[in-house]
Automatic annotation (TrEMBL):
It comes from Dyadobacter arcticus. It comes from the Bacteria. InterPro entries: MobC_2. This is Plasmid mobilization relaxosome protein MobC.
Length: 129
């Protein structure tokens, strides 16, 4: 048997203070409910509400890794541009300039890789505690 979906036609109004409404929205934001009305219906009809537990240190770690990933993408783009330019060189002097530039890019890459290693070690230490 298929469950028949019915349109909701009745409206229930409840007056709340700004503080009460903020607390209600805060509780709703920590659940899997997509709308405040869905959350309130779950509460009224005693349906289970799935609460999402957030790990603050994990969230910070994800933000840091996102920043580091952006840095790696920028370095990768610079490296690809350098290699494309290498294929267009005709003289030895241009090649020497490219090598000097490559060395600075390589040092930057290693610095970012070291930072990624340091951050992942830090995250692993936090997670294993």
């Amino acid at each position: 048997m298929k469950k028949r979906k019915s349109n909701r036609t009745r409206l229930v109004g409840v007056r709340l203070t700004l503080d009460e409404y903020a607390r209600l929205e805060d509780k709703c934001s920590k659940t899997t409910c997509r709308a405040l009305s869905e959350f309130v219906r779950h509460l009224i009809f005693n349906r289970p509400v799935t609460v999402i537990e957030r790990n603050d240190s994990f969230d910070k770690a994800v933000l840091e890794l996102t920043r580091l990933r952006k840095g790696l993408t920028e370095i990768g783009n610079n490296f690809n541009q350098s290699v494309k330019r290498l294929h267009t060189f005709n003289q030895v002097l241009e090649l020497r300039d490219w090598i000097a530039n490559y060395e600075s890019e390589r040092m930057l890459l290693f610095a970012v890789l070291y930072e990624i290693k340091r951050q992942t070690d830090k995250i692993a230490d936090q997670y294993l505690q």
